[in-house]
What we know:
By secondary structure, this protein is of the alpha+beta class. The chain is 24% helix and 41% strand.
Amino acid sequence: MSFPAKVIRDGLLEKRSSGLLQLWKKKRCVLTEEGLRLHNCKGGGSEAKELRFERMATVDCVEYKRGLVYFTVVMVTGKEIDFRCPQDGTAWNAEIALSLVRHKNLQAVQTGRNRHLSTAHLGSTGEDEEL
């Protein structure tokens, strides 16, 4: 049984489309401990697109123009996804970047624990060690 991920932030972001015209489209975004879910603002009932932290490399290209923050989420595949949001309050890019760092730190700690546990099981029995 899996529990729903804790919501860190919920609100609107604009995402640049990947089409020829690269139009900015409003998305309702939900930032959780697992990643960023993008929902269409128009009814449609379609599935949300999820950008999971496991597949994110970094958040960068921050630019401030006319009261807006422009930033890019770079995926591990190299794909770049452009967003913009109002500059007031805590910017989405900062929230996403901090959540990504938190996620990667937790992964690193878990990897270190797993490595330590596996070497402890494979290590010596302690019988021939001197203090």
